[in-house]
Amino acid sequence: QQPVQSPQAVILREGEDAVINCSSSKALYSVHWYRQKHGEAPVFLMILLKGGEQKGHDKISASFNEKKQQSSLYLTASQLSYSGTYFCGTLLVQGAQKLVFGQGTRLTINP
Amino acid sequence: KAGVTQTPRYLIKTRGQQVTLSCSPISGHRSVSWYQQTPGQGLQFLFEYFSETQRNKGNFPGRFSGRQFSNSRSEMNVSTLELGDSALYLCASSFGQYNEQFFGPGTRLTVL
User: Fold this and answer.
1) What CA–CA distance (Å, rounded) separates A59 from A67?
2) Does B105 touch chain A (CB under 8 A)?
3) pLDDT tens-digit profile of B51-84?
4) Distance of CA B18 to CAs B3, B8, B63, B82, B92, Å?
5) How far is A101 from chain B (nearest CA, A)?
6) Looking at chain A from residue 37 to 66, which residues have their Cβ under 8 Å from any Cβ of chain B?
7) What is the rounded average pLDDT of the residues A69-90?
8) How far is A12 from chain B (nearest CA, A)?
9) How are beta strands B10-13 and B107-111 bridged, if at all?
């Protein structure tokens, strides 16, 4: 089941904050976040694991609410380089290798 | 370490033809996954290989197949191409229990 991301698109000015949400109808083991710039491959940002462990980016934070099966990605004091499409990917069980991605959130940062 | 490489980068085929795409993972990565990316459907999981065995498969028709070699390199084949197969095909390799995906640049396939 594909996770649902919101919003679908957001436009910010440099320095503003953004929150991107990812919701699943199924219990999750982990949530991955990736950023894809136009014409490039997706790049890994962060993993959030059931139980609260995080692994990833030092300038971007995220949370994982296990009760709601929802993850949020927080982009604070956004920079022009943050522009791109953000995807969340979900794994249902530990060791599962089938990553299911959301539809993506397009983030545009203007100067 | 060198990143994931994919060849060719661009491909134009006609309906009914078949195509083979290649992916070389990061050295030491034994898991290779393939994804199809289109504007309408986003990133769709095709299949995943580990130690030459297909461990997971997405919801794609049997025209889509793959394999992995002993050096972890992987190929993906699409037979009897359809217009709807036009997409960016991404390969990703991973290592370890958390399965963070390291993506290659992709192969842009256009079916005419």
Assistant:
1) 26
2) yes
3) 999 998 999 999 999 999 999 999 999 999 999 9
4) 27, 14, 9, 10, 22
5) 6
6) 40-44, 47, 49, 55-56
7) 92
8) 23
9) parallel
The DSSP result for A52-110, as a single string, is S-EEE-SS-EEEEETTTTEEEEEE-S--GGG-EEEEEEEESSTT----EE---EEEEEE
- Percent of chain B clearing pLDDT 70 (strictly above): 100
Cα angle A35, A39, A43 (rounded to 5 degrees) comes to 25
Q: Where is average pLDDT lowest: A90-104, B12-26, B38-52, B90-104?
A: A90-104
A52: closest CA of chain B, how far (Å): 14
Residue A54 has pLDDT above 70, yes or no: no
CB count in 10 Å sphere of residue B73: 15
How many whole angstroms separate alpha carbon B94 and alpha carbon B78? Answer: 23
Say which residues have a Cβ less than 8 Å from residue B110's Cβ, sequence separation at least 6: B10, B11, B12, B13, B86
pLDDT of residue A95: 67
Q: Tell me if B48 and A97 make a contact (CB, 8 A cut-off).
A: yes
Q: How many CB atoms lie within 10 A of CB B76?
A: 23
Count of alpha carbons within 13 Å of B111, Cβ hemisphere only? 17
